[in-house]
Write a structure and sequence with these properties.
Elements (H helix, E strand, L loop, with lengths): L2 E6 L3 H12 L4 E7 L2 H11 L3 E4 L8 H9 L16 E6 L4 H9 L4 E4 L4 H12 L4 E2 L1 H10 L17 H11 L4 H8 L3 H15 L4 H10 L8
Parallel strand pairs: 1-2, 1-3, 3-4, 4-5, 5-6
Helix pairs in contact: 2-3, 3-4, 7-9, 7-10, 8-9
Organism: Pseudonocardia alni
Protein name: DNA-binding NarL/FixJ family response regulator
Pfam families: GerE, Response_reg
């Protein structure tokens, strides 16, 4: 299966390098490259890619707003028009500021990597996000875990009470970063059943990605971070 990718970055040299890296992978096809957020939204609607590799700091609308439009995530009380498609978004940026990480994940990004990432990690990240799995740079992961390392706050996750016991177990596993295979092995269910449970968890909690689900599990106190 070929993964269709749109690359969005306002720096031509960086964009060219990303296209070369991704294009060298036999299972990845770069279907478009664009230089601003609005063009990324249009390319996602036109080409229907599996993944949009998104920079944050771009002219016009930034990568966070572009991600929100592509994924269809809407802030409360806001209408931004129809989603551009079913593409997953992998944010790739120079900046790992908390507000950018929070903004990107809240907008529905499936992953957040820094531009210092090596080629192998980048291509693996694209593959993981295309599978619907979450990807976070190690630096970002540590900070997110520290942020939710306090007391459990179940009421901070709307819809948590709607989950069945099994779905709650799945959410806790997502919070620990388990893949579908890992969840299946731990819960002793098939991968097909696992995928169904994951989809139901995301739908009931109004989440767009497994990364958002992992953060929700931390917020709900379902995961106790280690040292």
């Amino acid at each position: 299966m070929t993964i269709r990718v749109v690359v969005a970055d306002d720096q031509e040299a960086v964009r060219t390098g990303l296209v070369l890296i991704l294009g060298s992978a036999p299972d990845i096809d770069v279907v478009a490259e664009v230089a601003d957020g609005l063009a990324a939204v249009r390319a996602a609607a036109e080409h229907r890619p599996d993944v949009v590799l998104m920079d944050i700091r771009m002219p016009g609308i930034d990568g966070i707003e572009a991600t929100r439009r592509i994924t269809g995530s809407r802030p409360t009380g806001t209408s931004i028009g129809p989603a551009a498609g079913s593409a997953q978004v992998l944010v790739l940026t120079t900046f790992d500021l908390d507000e950018l990480v929070d903004g990107a994940l809240a907008a529905g990004a499936g992953g957040f990597l820094l531009k210092s990432v090596d080629a192998a990690r980048l291509t693996d990240g694209v593959r993981a996000v295309a599978r619907g799995e979450g990807v976070l740079a190690p630096e970002v992961t540590r900070r997110v875990i520290r942020r939710y390392a306090g007391a459990p706050r179940p009421s901070s996750v709307p819809g948590l009470e709607r989950l069945t016991a099994r779905e709650t177990d799945v959410l806790a596993g997502l919070g620990r970063g388990l893949s579908n295979a890992g969840l299946s092995a731990e819960l002793m269910i098939s991968e097909g059943t696992t995928k169904t449970h994951v989809s139901r968890v995301l739908a009931k909690l109004g989440l767009r990605s497994r990364t958002q689900a992992a953060i929700a599990a931390q917020e709900a106190g379902l995961v106790r971070p280690g040292p």
